[in-house]
Specification:
260 residues; alpha/beta; five-stranded parallel sheet; three-stranded parallel sheet
């Protein structure tokens, strides 16, 4: 299972630059017949759009191999909450995708009906909407977020997470602790297991973020590989508790070619 930004590509605006060795690595895995998936915490567009974007820059990623929090939130809801009324903070395209997947979505005017408030990437949110969401959480709705890290790796430095900003505002106002459903979370582990159809103990999780990708791997008992081509490039692993360290560290994905 591979992360995207900082691991396979570096983004600068709408342009993605492939990390050296990433294309060859995925092609070799594909030729071997072994399954792989790609998981990004990006959630402003449906997974199929992300997959097409990766194919456009030469990475052999099919639609069904692409995972995002818009997938893993469904894995979370599938465990007894599939009929929940969801108040989403998402883009228009993400909302259409979730509706097509059968989620019961409501708008801010029906916030008092919400069983769940779900925050992914969002371009705009006004204070009355945030207040309505916070009141829904105070009344008992579960606060879910695709990601709660402050930033992820971009070609020109860290890209700040708008979803985390919105989640933090609702969490502060409601005194609630958000539940992550993207990386790292048990919901994401279940979605990866479902897509790859192998025990999580037999999966290698490769990513550039110690606190997101490596943490995700540890949740599932997977092998973890930290690539130094992204946001955790300069982190001193000797200062990280041993149980949180990756099983292996490489400069970038090109080093993994020698492992296959």
């Amino acid at each position: 299972m591979f992360d995207v930004d900082g691991t396979l590509v570096h983004r600068a605006g709408d342009t993605a630059h492939v990390v050296p060795g990433a294309r060859e690595l995925l092609e070799r895995i594909k030729e071997s017949g072994r399954p792989f998936a790609v998981f990004t915490n990006g959630s402003h567009v449906p997974p199929t759009v992300f997959a097409k974007g990766l194919r456009d820059v030469g990475l052999p990623v099919e639609d069904e191999q692409m995972l995002t929090p818009l997938c893993s939130v469904q894995a979370y809801l599938d465990r007894g909450r599939r009929d929940a009324v969801v108040l989403p903070f998402v883009t228009d395209s993400a909302r259409r995708y979730l509706l097509d997947c059968g989620l019961n979505l409501v708008g801010p005017e029906e916030a008092d009906r919400a069983d769940v408030v779900f925050v992914a990437h969002i371009d705009h949110a006004d204070l009355p909407e945030l207040e309505q969401a916070a009141r829904a959480v105070i009344a008992g709705a579960r606060l879910l977020t695709g990601s709660y890290v402050s930033a992820y790796a971009g070609a020109n430095g860290p890209i700040l997470s708008r979803g985390a900003m919105v989640t933090a505002a609702i969490a502060k106002a409601s005194s609630a602790r958000p539940t992550i459903v993207g990386k790292p979370s048990k919901a994401a582990v279940r979605e990866i297991h479902k897509r790859l159809a192998v025990p999580t103990e037999e999966i290698a999780v490769v990513g550039d973020d110690l606190f997101m990708d490596v943490a995700l791997g540890h949740l599932g008992g997977s092998r973890t590989v930290l690539v130094r081509s992204g946001i955790s490039a300069d982190i001193d692993l000797s200062k990280v508790p041993e149980k949180r360290r990756p099983h292996a560290t490489v400069a970038d994905t090109s080093e993994l070619l020698g492992w296959l």
